[in-house]
Design brief:
This protein is α/β, with parallel strands linked by helices. The protein is about 30% helix and about 15% strand. It has 2 domains: about 240 residues, Rossmann fold, CATH 3.40.50; about 160 residues, DNA Methylase, Chain A, domain 2 (Alpha-Beta Complex), CATH 3.90.120.10. The protein is globular and about 60 Å long.
């Protein structure tokens, strides 16, 4: 059994995937991301990791595997896992049709067929670089996450191509769509995970049984139980019901630390407060609300929990003037007794889609972070806009924990 398990995170900002791996017992050796603002958050919360960021060091297209290994003092095959979520834009129908037309027209003439392979699609250059670094570093495992639409596109052809790309460099690879709500995250959020290893082992994927007990299943049928101190699903109120009134923020106000004024009422809230990691002063950070107009407060006050824009009376809709056929979900109020809908990156400009369930305001960064399963000790840096983007782009740490736990147990030979 190794003294410690290690990983390198590509496309790492702000650190949701890394946090899940660290909670599972791994140590981050390095994190790579061109997003300097997001990496300020990462470096704040992962003090021991080597940070590669900015247009030069953080661009995976320029990252030399030899330089990475030399900086970290490691050899090929030594790191346990390479993880990350490279943006893969070329599997959309419009993108693929456009590329095929360029091929036929001779503009993109290095391809010999009108349906290019996924790895050769120029829009997927970052994915190609992820494959390159996995090939060069030869980690024991890799984990790649992405949007679930990959699974359904062209009857799964893209997923099969991705698996073949990794198999061609020596990795037994499988893919599965996971829903974060099944792993304790108070949010419906589906992502596709590719897991591969060069050890010839079955790949572990976390699943849930009919009793909502979390278990990790290997492709070969062996399993290992993985337990949270609470059983899913986790509701919005389980997640945020203990937080105090936020500070109303003006321009430039991104963080005003607050004290807890209510006891933790759910196991999830206790976990969110008590989880350690990073330097933490025991207070609530990133809990600053937007300022709202009288019109917004009036409409929010009328809405019941779970109500959408489409459900509002016409006299209130006229105050905004949005078209019903386009903006049916422009305003949505969260329901206390259900998990949240997916928290997205454009939360920073579409905050109306996340109206607080009991107060006439939209949610704060800290509330969004709780819905994403970030503990309170994980503090986001930058402006409120930066923070909202980071939260929405992140992999939920509890989902990452479930994935990482299976890999840890496989590496340590703990499956029976």
């Amino acid at each position: 059994m190794p003294d410690r398990l290690t990983f390198i995170d590509l496309f790492a900002a702000p650190g949701g995937l890394s946090l899940g791996f660290e909670m599972a017992g791994f140590t981050a050796l390095a994190a790579v991301d061109v997003d300097e603002k997001g990496m300020k958050t990462y470096s704040r919360n992962f003090r021991k990791a080597e940070i590669f960021t900015g247009p030069d060091r953080g661009d995976v297209r320029r990252l030399k595997s030899e330089e990475l290994m030399r900086t970290l003092g490691i050899s090929r095959g030594e790191v346990d896992a390479v993880i990350g979520g490279p943006p893969c834009q070329g599997f959309s129908t419009i993108g693929r049709v456009k590329i095929a037309s360029l091929v036929r027209g001779g503009v993109w003439n290095h391809m010999k067929v009108a349906q290019p392979r996924f790895i050769d699609d120029p829009r997927n250059v970052l994915y190609r670089e992820f494959v390159r670094i996995v090939h060069d570093l030869q980690p024991k495992y890799f984990v790649m996450e992405n949007v679930p639409g990959m699974m359904s596109y062209r009857n799964g052809e893209i997923v099969e191509q991705v698996k073949e790309d990794f198999r061609s460099i020596g990795y037994r690879t499988e893919a599965r769509v996971l829903n974060a709500v099944q792993f304790g995250v108070p949010q419906e959020r589906k992502r596709i995970f590719f897991i591969g290893n060069r050890l010839g082992l079955p790949n572990p994927f976390p699943l849930t049984d009919t009793n909502s007990t979390l278990e990790l299943f290997l492709e070969g049928g062996r399993q290992h139980r993985f337990s949270l101190p609470w059983k899913p699903p986790t509701t919005v109120w389980d997640a945020i019901g203990d937080l105090p009134e936020p500070v109303e923020g003006g321009p430039g106000v991104a963080d005003v630390p607050l004290e807890y004024t209510k006891p933790a009422l759910s196991e999830y809230q206790k976990w969110a407060r008590d989880w350690g990691g990073g330097p933490y002063d025991g207070r609530i950070h990133n809990h600053v609300s937007r300022r709202h107009s009288e019109r917004d407060v009036k409409v929010f006050s009328v809405m019941t929990e779970g109500m959408w824009w489409r459900d509002l009376p016409q006299d209130l809709k006229k105050l905004y003037g949005y078209r019903d056929d386009i903006f049916h979900d422009k305003i949505k109020r969260l329901c206390r007794h259900k998990p949240s809908w997916t928290v997205v990156a454009h939360l920073y400009k579409d905050g109306y889609m996340y109206v607080h369930p009991t107060q006439p305001r939209t949610i704060t960064v800290r509330e969004a972070a709780r819905l994403q399963s970030f503990p309170d000790a994980f503090i986001f840096m930058g402006s409120r806009t930066d923070q909202f983007k980071q939260v929405g782009n992140a992999v939920p740490p509890l989902l990452a924990l479930a994935v990482a736990t299976g890999i840890r147990n496989a590496l340590q030979g703990e499956f029976s």
